[in-house]
Amino acid sequence: MAVRRLNQQQTQRQSRAPVSDAFEECHIKEESIDTITGKLDQICLTEEMADVFFLFQGENIARIPAHKMILALRSPVFKAMFYGSFPQREGDIWIEDIKLDSFRRLMKYLYTDLLQLNKNSVIPLLYAAKKYQISGLISKCEKYLQDNLAVNNACTLFSHAKFFTMAKLRTNALKYIADNAFDVVKNDDFLMLLSEDLVDILKLDSLCVQEVDVVRAVLKWVDHKLAKSKNKIDGKSRRAILLKDGILFTMAIPLLSFEEFTSVVTPSSILTDEEQLQISKAIKSLNNASACGKFRVRPRKGGRVVEVLIHDIVYPSNNRSCDINSSIINVDCSEILSVKANKRIKIKSVTIKPQFQQPSQNNWNVEVDIKTFTTVHKEIPKTFKMFDFHEEEWRDIKTDEVTLNINYEGRACKLPVDKVILENQKLEFSIKPCLPHRNYNLWGSNRHMIKILPQTYQLVNGMMYEHKLSQQTTLYLSLTGGYLVESFEVVEIC
């Protein structure tokens, strides 16, 4: 009997619980509706008391109900439309320039101030906000766009900012493009630019990118434009588009190296024979770019190439406390040059000029291995429970390798590298001279007098030397072996 009574009581409690929960839910819902926002939300997009309808053409005509007074309170355009000198009193209103989904979002905002923005909805909503002069919505859309500036949308947002006359967003987008130009010009978003917007960007002195990358990006842009319009891609077609709005002359082609000019510009056929000859002469004669007519000759912020001499690294401020030794070593002893930096840089080239003293040899081969290492860290798990700490293991993982075989002809040989090093990366050059097998001595070794780099054991950031490239950029380097590298060229990337 006791067990039966207990079961009956438990059943009664369970049967009463849903009634209590339902009452609480109903009470909470009623409280949220019993506010002006709740009431407006309740009638938003419904025909209850609606006195105007908006029509949208699609597969089927959609009819959106609304309330004139509410719309007029939120928008001066709607106010003039419904309560102005010539109010629209009868008939539905066709909307042809705003999509149905965007208009629904607009109505929801006007009635409740509720807004959910995403990358697909923000621009259509911004257009609607501008059309109906809804200042609060314009501000929210503009803030969303500024907070979401990125490499893959900066050019598009710059174009939108110009179209919608949003000065602050335009300025911020342009600054973002300039600061991140190295990545922006290589992104597909750059290809979507209108010609007049492209000119605005190319006129900037503050672009943090080398001029050859600017030229490559513009040539890719013009080919994309021709392909999209299904026009023939050739020099004549490219030039016709580049002459529009003066795009051609916003590129500092006369500032390119001769190798960059002949490998990038010449094959594109965008120059006349006269321009080709004029610029070619200017590049060869150096410092004569001003004679190249309308072409830009002013360098950009990101185009500054700094040549770093190995001598300046080993002997900073002409400190000769330890001289480079002249020793007899095996000539197959390679030099290893490793480079790190505290920020992103680009190694443009490396100049090899072996400091052999004897015997003199004019022709021999040099093998250069260029490796990129990325520094990663991995947490070491606890081995024994008695230890109450975690250690981290740092190691360099090889991520890329290129081998070059060059013929040294007795003078300085500049190798184009064009490798970007990130903050957590190291670039390593292994240079190995391969001399003809002759002049063997008693021990059967091919030995020559060669300058040897001094050894240092004071490590900075895990490297032998520290070199200030600028106020913002510090290089960390290690050099071992023979004195084979004379200098290398660095470009700072903002």
What would you say this structure looks like, in words?
The protein has 494 residues and is α+β, with helices and mostly antiparallel strands. The protein has three domains: 41-147, Potassium Channel Kv1.1, Chain A (2-Layer Sandwich); 160-303, no CATH class; 305-380 and 391-492, Jelly Rolls. 36% of the residues lie in helices and 24% in strands. It is built from 16 helices and 16 strands. It has helices spanning 2-33, 36-43, 68-74, 76-83, 100-112, 122-131, 135-147, 154-163, 167-179, 181-184, 195-202, 211-228, 235-243, 258-265, 273-285, 310-314, and strands at 52-56, 62-66, 93-94, 305-309, 325-330, 335-341, 345-352, 356-358, 364-380, 391-408, 413-421, 425-434, 447-452, 465-468, 474-480, 485-492. Strands 10-9-12-6-15-14 form a six-stranded antiparallel sheet, with no helix packed on it. It is elongated, with a radius of gyration of 35 Å. The model is unreliable at 1-31, 320-326 and 438-450 (pLDDT under 50).
Poorly predicted regions are 1-31, 320-326, 438-450
CATH topology of the largest domain: Jelly Rolls
Rg is 35 Å
Q: On the 0-100 scale, what is the average pLDDT?
A: 81
Features:
single chain; 494 residues; alpha+beta; Potassium Channel Kv1.1, Chain A; Jelly Rolls; six-stranded antiparallel beta sheet; 16 helices; elongated
Sum this structure up briefly.
With 494 residues, the chain is α+β, with helices and mostly antiparallel strands.
